[in-house]
Amino acid sequence: MKQKRYLLSEDNIPTHWYNVVADMKNKPMPPLNPGTKEPLKNEDLYPLFAKKLADQELDQENIWIEIPEEVREMYKSYRSTPLVRAYGLEKALGTPAHIYFKNESVSPVGSHKLNSALAQAYYCKEEGVTNITTETGAGQWGAALSYAAKAFDLDLAVYMVKISYQQKPYRRSIMQTYGAQVIASPSMSTKAGRKILTEHPNYMGSLGTAISEAVELAMSTENCKYTLGSVLNHVTLHQTVIGQEAEKQMEMAGEYPDIVIGCFGGGSNFGGISFPFMRHNFTGERNTRFIAAEPASCPKLTRGQFHYDFGDEAGYTPLLPMFTLGHNFAPANIHAGGLRYHGAGVIVSQLLKDNLMEAVDIEQLEAFDAAVLFAEAEGIIPAPESSHAIAATIREAKKCIETGEEKTILFCLSGHGLIDMASYDQYLAGDLVNYSLSDEEIEKNLEEIKDLV
Amino acid sequence: MKQKRYLLSEDNIPTHWYNVVADMKNKPMPPLNPGTKEPLKNEDLYPLFAKKLADQELDQENIWIEIPEEVREMYKSYRSTPLVRAYGLEKALGTPAHIYFKNESVSPVGSHKLNSALAQAYYCKEEGVTNITTETGAGQWGAALSYAAKAFDLDLAVYMVKISYQQKPYRRSIMQTYGAQVIASPSMSTKAGRKILTEHPNYMGSLGTAISEAVELAMSTENCKYTLGSVLNHVTLHQTVIGQEAEKQMEMAGEYPDIVIGCFGGGSNFGGISFPFMRHNFTGERNTRFIAAEPASCPKLTRGQFHYDFGDEAGYTPLLPMFTLGHNFAPANIHAGGLRYHGAGVIVSQLLKDNLMEAVDIEQLEAFDAAVLFAEAEGIIPAPESSHAIAATIREAKKCIETGEEKTILFCLSGHGLIDMASYDQYLAGDLVNYSLSDEEIEKNLEEIKDLV
Question: Beta strands A98-103 and A83-85: pairing type?
Fold first, then answer.
């Protein structure tokens, strides 16, 4: 079986992050202060985030933002990540499509999350912060930040969504091995957690709840900042190293993608692979399709509403203009824990509203079918999250069989699934199910946010 | 923190394996037919192994053996693996030593084992074999062979040592995801397994027993060959791609190792990293030290005896001249399951006998101390097996603190520990222990083999 990987030399690793907002004709609407309903100013974010991260969050001017030397140095420990021509998958499908994947699973923590974790830890350290907090769904972000915190000598407390804490105990062990403190969320350690546990003692948690807890701890602890792994603009910004590298690597392969696909939780991995290519759509130079692949059980892009909503369950965060299922939406316990979030980042939300990208929803079983086919064909066991991108890729590749088109499809393999083998076990035993979601359920949660702004 | 990785371009991936035996002044003594006690001929091995593998096993003539094009192609999917300057570990230790590691954990299956798995699967396929069997300790070899079998379209049955089957259920899931059949050993599916289970119903297995079962199944199944992941010469031969790449990469770094270290189970990872460097010791050109790091609970190199012994528990294999603890030695249930084997490969045994290399034994807790320090410093959570090499490296690096010497130390990070997080959990909870081994215990097992030849 023919094999082809493309790697960049060290001096071709990106020196800047790409700030897509500066290139967007229709800018995202501003986040609002939940009390005053006034647009947020940079200063409003300073109590919560490191200043430079807050500035990046609201930056609509600078197209290119320089990557600090210390962060670039850490990137060198695993970047560039390989771009791989998926000959095995093409053969298994019998498709004329050319399939490529950007393999972010080779980072020491096993996913793309380290790209932003290192940046966030660095900026916190730089301004003298000693403690940071965060939440984690599947644990990929928590693992990445745990290593980044250790690398930049910060103390870290991670609120881990309880269902993942139980389904993926070894992600907890990984965080602890790097020296982080890990708390199952909802917990009794915060007001937000206690409130939810009082009302729903058996609630297995969600990213929205874990964010509330991490924010609350950061706000009530001295010299402590909050960090997060997706959704916000600055996180997606840091992930654009993925797409920038992929663009150069596709050039090495002599191709340009007709379709770019990423799985979708909050948007950082999707934006990371997509935005550097989308740039060429903005100029009219290219006409690439961009597809976000979300789980059918948490379908904010395909079945949610564009509305101002909170980023967390308790309503601590600013109000964000986004595609949302409502901040009280409690997603089913699917194994792609990293995709169980009620809202989409504001950039992606605006792009989708403007029809500059597409979204598809994938059932849990379709994702695992795709995962096992990919593992057999390419040797890498993908994370359940990434498997949604693989499933969407397979759909497009199968269309090419029908039409005979040799389309070039690029997807982001955001992480490996070696810590998710319990879910593969269940799948192989036939114990996994799809989760249907009625229109009524969706309506109910959206009803609750209609008067927020 | 400064970071430096060295990678080779595709055309610098080795084209040949290095057959150290052809360069050895004192050749290993021949394996013997257990019935006749006559030296084994190539034909004697043909029923069990693919012919070309059998020929490689006994080849004492050819220094360089060409890697088949199909195998090289598959190597390209993950090779070259990075050579990393461990600045983080150096800093954490405060040593003047220059520490490098060859990172074999980046292979899709997470360890070096794939280097030989692909070769063995290829040769079996080439001669028309349809089914293969093997044993696995920690599951690293089983996972690698499962993917290789899938890549070359072979059916695979894996006997997995029962203690690992229970301690590491997710390695089983990985093998099953690649489509392999996995059986806990000892099992009731073979005569060898039934005999042991009758005598010791609660026996948790050993590599020696699992080998007996895999050999028995191969011999009694049509068009079926046996394969294995370490100990034998041809396996170590395939692993020499590691050391060959490392030599070129050390050259890129402008250094040559004073000390080369590998963990030691049967010898394939140790030989893989060492032999290409040892070549220059043979010519007198260099004077590198080679250190095999074995677990204190399974100390064949440091406390065993050089003697003819069986490679398996039931006595199905040829008699091999090796450092051994006796083929009935039942190792303690340490977490480095890949190192729980009673004997050493014949090449390494001869080299140790001739003082061309050294061996040290490492207690379980020292290995985990080293593992966690390495994870914090370098971001990669190492396999418990590889941690023995890290511990030995740390010992040498600490000596350099005392002497002030800037020695260059190279070790092989044979695999990551992401499937071994249960053992990290136990370590972090303070539940792991060392296993002491009395001289009487060792004597008893050696007594049983003294009349074999």
Answer: antiparallel
Residue whose pair of structure tokens reads 């770094």 in the numeric block = B253
| A73 interaction partners in chain B (CB closer than 8 Å) | 1-3
Per-residue pLDDT of chain B (453 residues; tens, 9 = 90+): 899 999 999 999 999 999 999 999 999 999 999 899 999 999 999 999 999 999 999 999 999 999 999 999 999 999 999 999 999 999 999 999 999 999 999 999 999 999 999 999 999 999 999 999 999 988 899 999 999 999 999 999 999 999 888 877 888 999 999 999 999 999 999 999 999 999 999 999 888 899 999 999 999 999 999 999 999 999 999 999 999 999 999 999 999 999 999 999 999 999 999 999 999 999 999 999 999 999 999 999 999 999 999 998 888 899 999 999 999 998 888 888 889 899 999 999 999 999 999 999 999 999 999 999 999 999 999 999 999 999 999 999 999 999 999 999 999 999 999 999 999 999 999 999 999 899 999 999 999 999 998
* H-helix or E-strand spanning residue B69: helix B69-75
Does A5 contact B150 at a Cβ distance shorter than 8 Å? no
Give, as one character, the DSSP assignment of residue A256.
-
Contact A8, A249 (CB under 8 A): yes
Structure tokens at B76: 């390209």
Q: Which residues, numbered 375 to 394 in chain A, qualify as contacts with chain B under a Cβ-Cβ cut-off of 8 Å?
A: 375-376, 378-381
C-alpha distances in angstroms, A228 versus A155, A267, A271, A293, A408? Answer: 15, 12, 15, 21, 33
Q: Cβ contacts (< 8 Å) between A422 and chain B: which residues?
A: 170, 173
Give the domain ranges of chain A: 4-11+68-110+234-447
Furthest C-alpha separation in chain B: 61
Closest Cα partner for A339 from A278, A258, A420?
A420
**Least CB-CB distance to A177: which of B150, B176, B428?**
B428
CA proximity to B416, closest of B442, B446, B384:
B384
A108·B77 Cβ contact <8 A: no
Q: How far is A85 from chain B (nearest CA, A)?
A: 10
In chain B, residues with a C-beta closer than 8 Å to the C-beta of A176 are: 424, 428
Element spanning B289, H or E: strand B289-295
B356 vs B177: CA distance, rounded Å: 42
- Within a 13 Å sphere around the CA of B376, how many CA atoms are in the beta-carbon half? 18
B401 touches A at CB < 8 Å: no
Who among B84, B106, B173 is closest to A421 (CB)? B173
Q: Which of B1, B2, B3, B390 to mutate to test the interface with A (most CBs of A within 10 A)?
A: B3
User: What is the signed CA dihedral for A390, A393, A394, A396, rounded to 10 degrees?
Assistant: 170
CB B313 within 8 A of CB B206: yes
Which of A393, A390, A362 lies closest to A295 in space, CA to CA? A362
Residue of B nearest to A85 (CA): B77
**CB A371, CB A67: distance < 8 Å:** no
* SS3 call for A412: strand
With 0-12 / 13-18 / 19 or more C-beta atoms within 10 angstroms meaning exposed / middle / buried, residue A69 is: exposed
Partnered with residue B157 across adjacent β-strands are B133, B181
The identity of residue B426, as a single letter, is Q
Q: List CB contacts of A390: < 8 A, sequence separation 6 or more.
A: A367, A370, A371, A373, A374, A382, A411, A413
Give which of A330, A305, A301 is closest to A450, Cα–Cα: A305
Domain A4-11+68-110+234-447 class in CATH? alpha beta
| Residue pairs spanning A and B at CB distance below 8 A | 111
Q: Which residues of B touch A78 (CB under 8 A)?
A: 5
Evaluate the omega torsion of the peptide bond into residue B80 and state whether it is cis, within 30 degrees of 0: yes
Nearest CA in chain A to B5: A77
